[in-house]
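Dear support,

We are seeing what looks like truncated structure output for some complexes. This example has two components. We would appreciate it if you could run it in full and send us the complete token output so we can diff it against ours.
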Amino acid sequence: MFLINCPFCGERDQSEFSSGGEAHIVRPKQPTELSDDEWAEYLFMRKNIKGVQFERWNHVHGCRKWFNVVRDTSNDKILSVYKMGEKPPVNYK
Amino acid sequence: MPNYRIHKTEYIDETKRVSFKYDGKTYFGYEGDTLASALLANGIHLIGRSFKYHRPRGIVSCGAEEPNAICQIGSKKDLTEPNVRATELELYEGLEASSQNCWPNVKFDIGGINNFISPLIPAGFYYKTFMWPKSFWKKVYEPLIRLSAGLGKSPTEPDPDIYDHKHVHYDVLVIGGGISGIIAAKMAAKNNLKTLLVDDKKILGGSTIYQNNESIKIDDKLSSEWLKNETQEIKKLSNLTIKTRTSIAAYHGYNFLLAKENLTDHLPEEKKKNKIRQRLWKIRAKKVVIATGSIERPLVFNNNDRPGILLSNSINKYLDYYGVTCGENIILFTNNDSAYETSISLHKKGIKNLIVDLRKSASSELIKEAQNLGIKIYFNHVVTNTFGYRKINSLEIMRLSEDGNTTVGNKIRLNCDCLGMSGGWTPMVHMHTQSGGKLNFRDDDQVFLPKENSEDQISVGACNGDFDLENIIDKTVNKINKFLDINNQDYQDTKIICSKENDKRNIWLLPNKIPLGKTKCFIDFQNDSTAKDIKLALKEGFRSIEHVKRYTTTGMATDQGKLSNMHALGIVADTAGVKMGTLGTTTFRPPFTPLTFGTLVGRNVGKFFEVVRKTSMHEWHVENNAEFENVGQWKRPWYYPKNGENMHAAVQRESKAARDSAGILDASTLGKIDIQGTDASEFLNRVYTNAWSKLAIGKCRYGLMLNEDGMVYDDGVTTRISENHYLMTTTTGGAANVLSKLEDYLQTEWPELDVYLTSVTDHYSTASICGPNSKKILNKLFPNLDLSDENFPHMSFKEGKLENINCRIMRISFTGELSYEINIESKYGNSLWKMCIEAGKEFNLTPYGTETMHLLRAEKGFIIVGQDTDGTMTPSDLQMDWIVSKKKYDFIGKRSLYRSDTIREDRKQLVGLLTDDPKEILEEGAQIVSDIKSKPIDMLGHVTSSYFSPNLNKSIALAVVRSGKSMKGQKLIIPMENKNINVTVSDTIFLDKENKRLNA
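Here is the complete output from our reference environment:
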């Protein structure tokens, strides 16, 4: 069970959060311009990395804020958390 | 009655006699005994029958690893518990235990016949045998397998015991209160770290606490004396919490651990009452020290499973800790030094014993001591067979060949009444691997050891492969100092004398002249798998240890192979000719020992099982005989039976009344989201499929919300309260998810929008009044409100006052009737409801529940998201193209509406169905076909909603059917178990297509 450091509330038990999948997938500004394949890429394709992964989490039973998490999926270590809109930490790229 | 308790020990209180029943017979033990030690004191070894062959089995060990001595405790329907390890269960007055897996009784068991037909029951027997003939499966094989499956009997009534959960945080958690755990806990606590020490036994001290060999000493004291002193010392440390009778069940990531504390299992019945039975500790620790020790390995030879054959170290513990000897003429069979400790102990208590040692020779101080005492030792010998049905009475040994692969010379037959096995020690690496740690294999003594110790977790002592005392103390102290970054000098000058050596001759499957096929060399006692089974699995092509394990069921019983996994691995490695270290191990999964469900659920039982939400009108519904339906966490009135009506009759009456005069529904559970901000209109434009910018203040609009994949997600009516203020309603079940989804878009995709969302579901109660007389009722309630169609038309909103309380009234309809929804602050909900009922009396205002609501809306062809949709329906599939804006540039899901898959003509589409026989009501979920002759039958879709409409006097149904939109008027068939129902595809709207009633 993770301990997640919510950027707004501090360290909390994983049971207060829900996971929102891969981060930094931006909704296309002009979806109508996209081909089926390009739209499918946005809609369905996720990396599911073994290793360092950027994820979205929601403090759903807390402040209800969404934020980003850098997690190593091979050992579940959370390496960093940062707010929505903030640039991802470069050292994990 | 024989008495095998031969001397006094400080752990057994002989002044406190305890009576207990085993298999219906009364015996006596003492306070301090386990069920196993008390049975052994009474000379009872035979304690159960094995799972597959029903062979007589006896106590093997003295702890959590016990595979055989598992008992049924108690006989009450609610309190009986199966598979309790007699070796762990502390004896108490009035304890009732019985043997399992035998009929009619443990001494004479009919199932024992399986032992003689065992050549017919090889590994994978079930997979191979019960395949043919196919028709036998349901009637013959399955009932038979079910009859013989399982160990013990489950309780059949709810568990009346109380269980508890507790969350704790510590700097350091030490698992295991043996010598290394005690040292680690003392070092941590003395360094001002908040420390928790847990041990599954009643007292601390592990296996050192009863050690009494003069040649094993610490600071010139017996190691047990020294450790007792340490135990007293640590009890004085204020920041150390010690929890005995507490075992770690699971070690999860982030040093989150679950521990089970036994609070009353050792108490007599009358003292258990009204006390918490077990407590589940949810532990978060900054650092974890694993000091779980090791368990002794059995040896694998022919007939190694007879009652009276135990682990050598267990014989020692029964003797030195419980004062009980396991026999009067004992043979110890070993491949290492540890059996010599047992031998010397037995000798000192006057118990005749001898040693069979696999090693060619050995010369540690301990062995010399045994030799000096005149204990007979057969070096380079192997036990090849044992005899005695209900208990061992003799055995055969033979000389080992030079390479250890075969036996030579003549058989020697030796009499005995007990055999102790010692195959060396297996470090308990369960906790390390559960936490995600990897293992290394040490070839010297064939053990798996924790590979690396991370910065927040470390293994010390025997579970780290340090078996001799000197190593245990020195290494533990050094590692703990480093791990906790401290400099503790307490053990700097500790003097250790240990005469044991680590030399060992490891042979996984001991050689025998008898062909393997004719032997019974058990590996997993509880699941009855033998060396032969493992070899057969390999012969049949299984290679992965995980597959071999499942095929032979080795290590898959309630003991999870604590004694058997290593031998299975060893034999696989030897047979396949690979190095054991390269095979890897099977996965160690939690819980370490079985947990009761009660412990896991704690207090969340009965009415605390789940949150229940009730509307403020709930009381009235109860008083008026409502039957309730669970919708999410809500309790909603389902129907209100009158004068013994069944559901059908009540629903027919309610729905007729709603259409003929007036009906009232508690609609408080609908999700309500308050939306405010200067961009609120734009926001709604983006989340709903239709246009919102032009909605006038005081008007309502129905909206359909999609997922980004174009599938219908939720629906509801939203009202514009003022320029920048909307009230959105959602489905009852979808409220929380819709709010989450909207927040997600606001916070992550459109942070530039000035919009604020607040869940107000619980803030307002809603009474929905519908029917031709609803306007008259409203008029009585709000006499000052102009209800004319010009001033208050369909899909509009007014504020009104009930007495002097503000209400929001929406003229919206989910039934197709003229209909008003009155919203009031929740605390007035019950009053509002009662006033409505009162005002409606003269119009036969009839309360109706969700079932009638469903019927009424189905007559009108309104969908219910989640009933008529299932996450694969687009608006077009629902024949709701009218609600999708063509003009809007974008909204959630828009792009997906013209993907190649969503524009397919042959998608499943919502249609109406009319049965040829208007009295026939279809079953929801029933499959729809057009041709029942072609096989396989082509499934076209299924029924989603079905009712008998009293207003139309016929059966109506909604269904999703492939290409349904183009099938109007077509005949289809609904095949049921005993008949085929003929239906015709119709429009989805069955009643009042012209919407006359809305404005009646």
